[in-house]
Design a protein that fits this description.
Structural class: alpha/beta
Pathway: Cofactor biosynthesis; thiamine diphosphate biosynthesis; thiamine phosphate from 4-amino-2-methyl-5-diphosphomethylpyrimidine and 4-methyl-5-(2-phosphoethyl)-thiazole: step 1/1
Shape: globular
Oligomer: single chain
Strand content: 15-25%
Keywords: Magnesium, Metal-binding, Thiamine biosynthesis, Transferase
Strand order of the largest sheet: 1-2-3-4-5-6-7-8
Cofactor: Mg(2+)
Protein name: Thiamine-phosphate synthase
Bound molecules: ligand LCLJCK34, the ligand Cc1nc(C(=O)O)sc1CCOP(=O)(O)O, magnesium ion
Function: Condenses 4-methyl-5-(beta-hydroxyethyl)thiazole monophosphate (THZ-P) and 2-methyl-4-amino-5-hydroxymethyl pyrimidine pyrophosphate (HMP-PP) to form thiamine monophosphate (TMP).
Length: 208
């Protein structure tokens, strides 16, 4: 199955007090991948929330990805996203098995992306493409990189960083498969608006 569509990423601060309601609203609108991103060290809460997300994802046939934490991903039988400082990919592929989705942050580097692909990444993520509320200091990437990536890479390409409904179209036109979004999806005033945004991202990607 080729990975293509909206990649919703949770944010513990942004979703405080409305976590499951907003995630469910996004799934209702259509989400290809859901990433549980929680940078805290509260292991008990992380396990509880990740289990709740796994149950929700099963209902909506969405694939769950855990940010940073391969052990938690293995425990739940789901995928993982690894950044450049989150450890090597190959042992995680061995731990999670060949069918697991493993993503790799490659910033604006095709070399990192080719290396990740050779180590068994399921997709590579480039970013950030725009100003990001969630991670303002992330290194920036541009559209030309996506053109190169389309030529050189044979795995799905994800774009991240400040993506909204107003700026996502050029990313799609330059061949992005996955649009990874925090604020542009979950920074909404109501669950209904989250669902509307998810549907609109899918329309941009021509996902039914
Ligand atoms: C889809 C996606 N792309 C990039 C990242 C960033 O990963 P990383 O560089 O490890 O930074 P943190 O998210 O861990 O702060 C991501 N999480 N997801
Ligand atoms: C987690 C993350 N990683 C990035 C990178 O460029 O690697 S940008 C980012 C934050 C994405 O959130 P928002 O959609 O609110 O900008
Ligand atoms: Mg990380």
């Amino acid at each position: 199955m080729k990975l293509r569509g909206l990649y919703a990423i949770t944010d513990s601060q942004l979703l405080a007090g409305k976590f499951l309601a907003y995630v469910q609203a996004a799934l209702e609108g259509g989400v290809t991948l859901l990433q549980y991103r929680d940078k805290s060290s509260d292991e008990a809460r992380r396990l509880r929330e990740a289990e709740a997300l796994r149950n929700l994802c099963e209902r909506y046939k969405t694939r769950l990805i855990i940010n940073d934490d391969a052990e938690l991903a293995a425990r739940l039988g789901v995928g993982v996203h690894l950044g450049q400082t989150d450890g090597p990919l190959a042992p995680v592929r061995a731990l999670l098995g060949r069918d697991a989705i493993i993503g790799s942050t490659c910033h604006a580097s095709l070399e990192l992306a080719e290396q990740a692909a050779s180590e068994g990444a399921s997709y590579v993520a480039f970013g950030r493409f725009f100003n990001s509320n969630t991670k303002p200091g992330a290194p920036s990437a541009n559209l030309e990189l996506l053109d190169q990536a389309r030529i050189k890479l044979h795995i799905p390409v994800c774009a991240i960083g400040g993506i909204t409904l107003d700026n996502a179209a050029p990313l799609v036109a330059h061949g992005v498969d996955l649009l990874a979004v925090v604020h542009g999806l979950f920074g909404a005033d109501s669950p209904l608006e989250v669902t509307r945004r998810a549907r609109a991202f899918n329309d941009l990607l021509q996902i039914k």
